[in-house]
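Let's study a protein:

===
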Amino acid sequence: MANYTAADVKKLRELTGAGMMDCKKALDEADGNVDKAVEALRIKGQKGVAKREGRSAENGAVVSLLAEDNTSGVLLELKCETDFVAKGDKFQATAAALAAHVAATSPADLEALLASEIEAGKTVQAYVDEANANLGEKIVLDRFAQYADGFVFAYMHRTMPDLPPQIGVLVELDKADADVAKGIAQHIAAFAPKWLSREDVPAEVVETERRVAEETTRAEGKPEAALPKIVEGRVNGFFKDATLLGQPYALDNKKSVQKVLDEAGVTLKRFTRIKVGI
């Protein structure tokens, strides 16, 4: 029998994130040599990565990182298969490290991020694959946002107290106003608008909504003369639901979000809302 101690098993678990029985087996095969056991587990883990590719990763965490002066910020989603892994320290440390890397390097898009080096000789894609191997689950990085052109604020929402944030919102104002930024971000988290204003909705989306509204109204047998007004009302209802600025403000529904911003004398330049798995 290989010569190793419980402390060796503990060390191997901390180094690799592998289960206790896998660590013991690896130490047996490596004659108690921890370094060789680490290598063996990594090799086995990388083989497991390919097997996990077809599995679904719908749990995970949203993390944020803001500059101390709120002039820049990052929002990033890292997904995994189970909430057990999502609330683990290693998974959350991985997500935080990826957010820090985005903040430091400002990649142009996801492809550039995955190809960039997070450690000497190691790309972000390799870093995620290593987490995949060590944690024994499919780990996916496929969304992030980075703002650096105004006053940036992040709001993080936990849907369960024992899980990391599952919803994150990043907003960018044209000038500093932490109270307004927080309130608007909370509103976005709750109401999930897709676009900032009517002008931001793609023309083809509006065209589809108008066509559906007209066909629905005709199917209901409404008078022909009333069609334009009814259709317009339904399209306006779509804008109210889907665009942020026209929505009744969550903290004071007598005002629109636009009115709240106007009264504060600030402009919301852009926002990103990420909900894990959606």
Q: What stands out?
A: Strands lie at 59-66, 73-80, 117-119, 122-123, 140-147, 151-157, 167-173, 248-249, 252-256, 268-275. The chain has a mean pLDDT of 89.
